[in-house]
Amino acid sequence: MLHSLLRIIALIRKEFLAVLKDPRGRFIIFLPPILQCLLFGYAASFDLNSAFYAVLDQDRSPASIALLARLDGSTLFHRQADLHRIEDITTSIDYGWALLVIQIPQDFERHLLAGEPAPIQVIADGRNSNTAGTALGYVETVVNDFNADWRANHGQPVTSLRVVNRAWYNPNLDSRWTMIPSLIGTLTLMGTLMLTAMSVAREREQGTFDQLLVTPFRPFEIMAGKALPNMAIGLGQATTILLIAQFWFHIPFVGSFFVLYCGLGLFLMAAVGVGLFVSSIATTMQQAMLYAFLLVMPFALLSGLATPVSSMPDFLQTAMVINPLRYALDLTKRVFLEDAGFAQLGSDFLPLGTIGLFTLAGAAWMFTRRLN
Amino acid sequence: MTGWRAKFRRIRALTRKETRQIMRDPSSVAIGIVFPMIMILLFGYGLSLDVTRVSIAVVDQDASADSAGLVGAFRLSTYFGVTEVPSITGATTLLMDRKADGALLIPSDFSRRLHTGTAEIQILVNGTDSNQARIMQGYAEGSVALWRATQIGGASAGPVTVVDRMWFNNSNNSRYFIVPGLIVMVMTIIGAFLTAMVIAREWERGTLEALFVTPMLPGEFLISKIVPYFGLGAIGFVLCVLAGQFLFHVPLRGSLLLLCLAATVYLLVALGIGLLVSTLVKSQFLASQLVMTLTFLPAMMLSGFLYDLRSMPAVIQWITYVLPARYAVSLMQTLYLAGNIGGVVWLNLAILAAMAAILLAATRLATRKQLS
User: Fold this and answer.
1) Which of B39, B156, B168 sits opposite A126 (nearest CB)?
2) Is residue B66 within 8 Å of B111, Cβ to Cβ?
């Protein structure tokens, strides 16, 4: 038992040396996650912070000017141009000069004063339909405010039904609050899975893995010697991103670090397990890299990081039960923002543990089979 | 004349060798053909920002005809799955356990205050996934407004009404903008990632040094590398276009010829990056990490593929100007959805062509340096 432990420690030391002695290796382990965290923290946002719009005001009345002033008064909308002809609408949208074109027809104010419905037309550049949809929603809000005031000022009955919107856990619906906790799992998965898969494959290509297999080490010890250092590196990466989230992006961490790190431990076991399993199948570094990449890509993109899992077709939702990142994202976000505890996270802990056990056992079996 | 013929023969021989090498390595075929197909299917089906069915907990404390009508409007909507709960605590429990994504609270004085025009209802959403929460708020407000309009008889909803049109994507289908971006992703992976890995391996194994003692020139060497990988990329492109047409039914409004030209130019850029990186670092591990950081992740996050560039902070927007994927995504989205918008298409094509020329020239220079 003690000997076994000593052997594992020796292997762990060797593994750390192999990874960290090369300055380029050190650089590649810690610099990309930091840069990516900063870059994606700022870039990956579905929030609309500014929208350029053009106006074709055919009415040019006090009412139309008042409505447009409301848009200009918001911090979101910036008037890019005043158009004079219908044909200009097409050019503005086609060339992407304006995200929206607002067309106010000639008899706008007359309709308003007569108490009739006064339609305005809003055209959006739907090349990115998500942005366009959000922008249209904001226009509706501005118009609703205008309506409420108009009714109040013109003695029309106020029939408003006020909808009070409240969002739990993320009151301003800042997408950074969603994205950055998600990056803890995503960037760590990319780092550790690749690192693990490559470290075995490299030894294999150089022939040192066969040397390792003929030493008195048992397969279990070799596995532990490969898994533990990579998990430790993963924890280091996760902690780095956690620190950036709190001290750079100032996202409030309301949960418990103990729950978070238990979850991350299981997640890393699963990530390293998948990495080892990949490396047990691949015979060259290139193959290991490709297979790892083939797994990491769908894992990352279909985890709920970019688009919600619930919007995927059923067969993909079923296929993604093997995706450790899916559970890790749910777990980190919920601990981070919702203060979820063990009781609420059972649906994440259980699958993560299962994936870890299965992949590690699978890899161990593959390696022992090679031995015999 | 004989010089040219010899040159041609050398290139042909090398190209043939390279092509055979690709065909015989299962992992290259995997990444060249199987991988694009998996990506198109997984991401074409999996990546969707359209929130289809969210579960909402409804607390109706009023239990009047009016409130029942409002709840009915939510039940009728295809966007919501309604669970009625008797109390607010019931709703919050569902929300905390993630059994509901949001809640609608109708206070006991709803019906009475509705007739005096001061009614208020509350919509609670779980903000952990901010984009989904925002979309849900929009749907909920839409359902409320629709109910309100039918209740008070259309005309008085206003006075200003917004007629919105989403150009290029009338049905607001997020797949329309994701599929064109997907083509860029597939070509990035084949062009940059695969090429970088293969050439770095040749440097690692020393087979390139062996090649350089032959009478071959750096330019010829580059051409022989570009041709087969270009072929692989072209296959990936064709698969993507077919899938876009027949599986995802994304309209191609621009010309197919321009689309092919755009793909050709971008593929040359991607190949240029792959070749340059592998020539400079000469290590498979480093090359793969660098290519991943330089091309794949930016193509995913900083190109407008998913996240709109207009929403990013100014500094990040400047960074995107040096990334080829940005121009490629803009080009593809425009050609697919908007059509042949001369100014947009030629500007982006020209920038990409310039990038391709610079990258390939730099690679030639770097290869020559390695030789001497």
Assistant:
1) B168
2) yes
